[in-house]
Amino acid sequence: MSLLYADSSALLRAYFADEDEHIELRSLLLGEREPVVTSEITRLELASAVRSAYSAGRVARSSDLLGRIEGDLAEDGAISPIDLRADAIIPTAYRFVLEHRLRPLDAIHLAVCVEDCPALAGGEEVVFITRDTDQARAARALGLEVR
After folding, report:
1. Are strands 126-129 and 36-39 parallel, antiparallel or unpaired?
2. Which of 59, 66, 76, 146 could join 53 via S-S bond, C-beta 3.0 to 4.6 A?
3. Once rounded to an integer, what is the mean pLDDT over residues 51-73?
């Protein structure tokens, strides 16, 4: 069984029904077939996306969707958030920004995956789930399987 690291670009599609690949990503990331983790910063990114979607009329009640997301990120939820260990993650993310020309939050997600997921996976494969092409390219260059 693999450990799936979900970037916010993939999780957004899992929560918004009008997004491409919604059904596939909802099943993969929220179906609880394989363990799914993400960085704690995803909570902020998803909250911002829900707020923007509400302002644009894509979401009728932002509180309902935010409640679902919070439930999924809770201790017994479908997704396990990884605490941001700034002392280890920021230097790695900095390197990824320079070496792979990633945006800062994309680099942080990749750094959390590279630094924290091998120990969490207990020897199992770590799979990086993203819909960002630059981030996917960088993840592959770092030896990660990308879906």
Report:
1. unpaired
2. 59
3. 96
What φ, ψ does residue 90 adopt, rounded to 5°? Answer: -60, -45
Q: Where are the domains of the chain?
A: 2-146
* CATH class label, 2-146: alpha beta
Give residue-wise pLDDT tens across range 95-106.
Answer: 999 999 999 999
Computed over every residue of the chain, the mean pLDDT equals 97
- What is the Cα–Cα distance from 77 to 69, expressed in whole angstroms? 9
The per-residue DSSP string of 37-79 comes to EEETHHHHHHHHHHHHHHHTTS-S-HHHHHHHHHHHTSTTSSE
Give tens-digit pLDDT for 7-33: 999 999 999 999 999 999 999 999 989
Structure tokens that stand for 117 in this block: 């997921």
The Cβ of residue 40 has, within 10 Å, a number of other Cβ atoms equal to: 12
Q: How far is residue 120's CA from residue 38's CA, in Å, rounded to a whole number?
A: 12
